[in-house]
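Researcher: Please generate the 3D structure of the following complex. Treat every line as part of one assembly.
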Amino acid sequence: MHSPTIQKIIALFSKFPTVGPRTAARFVFYLMKLSPEETEEILKSISELKKNVKTCSFCYNPFESKEENDLCSICSNPIRNKGLLCVIANETDLETIEKIKKYNGRYFILGGTVSALRKSDMEKLRIKELEERIKNHPEIQEIILAINPTSDGETTTLYLERLLKPLNKKITRLGRGLPVGAELEYADEETLRNALEGRK
Amino acid sequence: MHSPTIQKIIALFSKFPTVGPRTAARFVFYLMKLSPEETEEILKSISELKKNVKTCSFCYNPFESKEENDLCSICSNPIRNKGLLCVIANETDLETIEKIKKYNGRYFILGGTVSALRKSDMEKLRIKELEERIKNHPEIQEIILAINPTSDGETTTLYLERLLKPLNKKITRLGRGLPVGAELEYADEETLRNALEGRK
Amino acid sequence: MHSPTIQKIIALFSKFPTVGPRTAARFVFYLMKLSPEETEEILKSISELKKNVKTCSFCYNPFESKEENDLCSICSNPIRNKGLLCVIANETDLETIEKIKKYNGRYFILGGTVSALRKSDMEKLRIKELEERIKNHPEIQEIILAINPTSDGETTTLYLERLLKPLNKKITRLGRGLPVGAELEYADEETLRNALEGRK
Amino acid sequence: MHSPTIQKIIALFSKFPTVGPRTAARFVFYLMKLSPEETEEILKSISELKKNVKTCSFCYNPFESKEENDLCSICSNPIRNKGLLCVIANETDLETIEKIKKYNGRYFILGGTVSALRKSDMEKLRIKELEERIKNHPEIQEIILAINPTSDGETTTLYLERLLKPLNKKITRLGRGLPVGAELEYADEETLRNALEGRK
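Model: Done. Output below.
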């Protein structure tokens, strides 16, 4: 029903995270109403993002720096504890953990999770890079696998635990149990079992 | 916490419909991962959208045409009933109504709804243009106010009804009543009253 | 896991409308905590309900009367319009419609809806009684089929329409269309079609 | 609108857990339709519940026994670990924990939680009885406070921790952390902090 130009941009926007064709169409109508200056600002911002923002050579977090710098502000911060490495699936998880202000080690962004141990899926993750980091950085003492306890996340965590075991570092997972506000009656059995075993 | 370039583009994306800062950040991380070619494709598509897609001079629907054409495919379709004008709030409503294949008149996209009859809000809508269309097109016999029966939509519909009354055309609203799948017990009183009065 | 007495009462409570085994168990724990006097009050109330409350001989609405009376307060009210008969599925629908204070005719409680025209299912409804009422009450001019526009409700309504047609009375349904607060974009196609056709 | 008998029983049913006036009315309509035999069965079952079912003299769990027995099947089970005491708010929590088959100690049903440390509220809970149990049963080595980590539950847990501290027993809470299926991004900060601190 839409014209080819609109159809094409709807297809492109539909690849954005959380965006479906209906929302993509709304983006198009929004863009249609913008002035040429406003549109230009968006185009320029996207270009600048790709030009100015680098990816940290240690943790893969996007960052911006005018200096010749390979490391993001977290990885280059001398106060952060270099003995801790928190492995996370995505960039948003880094923000989430930083916000609680309880972690002062470094991160490593894996780039996602896998639902099964298919080689093609595994290769999309930065697994080799993670192994390298740990081997090249003997100062790392504990690796925290801070991956979502979802089905995919558990598969990924289990794989990483086995893979990293021979490196002889302390490997931990985030604690499992009852979240704030939970009611025993509605908790799933696995969570309740974790809560009972992890009592303290 | 984000760098200035990222912050700026998050601010721009946050103005997109349905997008908040969290989703905007995900868009940024998505863009960061794209190849230069993929990014270029998005930039080019946005530019082409603004260049190729015109707004229909009758109904304000976006459309694309290689010819020198002012009217969208609906407004220029000789088979459509020129006696019917369906006034809708947004472009998406046009698609929604076209999809049910029951309406064969023309549309007029008002550009939104208002929550109160403040002059500043009213001026954002194409109210003058609507009046002009009706005055300049004596072939229009019925004006269907197909605006959401939400609080804002009702305010807007009521205002349009009063405004258009002197033009001596048939003015209708979409039928109110019980939607498919509704249960009397959970219907609000106003809807039930409409359903009882509109029985047939 | 529960003892036989508890299991039995859980089974009985689980047949109550909206109650599942988990809620039934909570009822049991609630009853366990009551004083003998409180328990006695519940038992007495249930007994009295069955003793004092009669079912209206016209509409099947439960009612209570110290006099020798066969009709509920609605059916015996001389001001109510005897020309209107509103056919509803359940007792709760009667309350729902009374609450909007727009209907002043009589009711007929069908006793449910059916999902298919199986004879065994149909016999659970008061279909013969409905036919009889209409035949024996020539003052009835309009029969309003106020059945939920759900799948089961539609099947039942359609069946009643065909069945009652030979009686040569005006037969109506509750109006279909957009409910208060609806948004076109999220309305189902059938509802939108009804709203467009029922515009006024 | 309802008759006095119906109104009274609606009021009584409305005190049942999870039941509001609308559901209570449905219960009444359900009862109205039952045969005298079915109604009698419900009345008899409630009477028998109050007659046959006792409350365990140790844990307050309802149980049924033909013998002269003061203890429920859990408390009188010689295989259960007498060193563990799991303090729970309600009877349903006992079932919930039994279902995961990981706990083999005894229980104590507190009878609820409190939202504030008001004396009048505290007296509704079996707090004195809990203290007595622990003092009179030196075999108890660990007291697990398995109370919901809701606002009320936390207030109650905190109060019990302080109260029981002088008794010099090991006092634990259920483990806090991420539940199965959780996503870091949507976890509340407190839960994430618990998950990070409780990593293992």
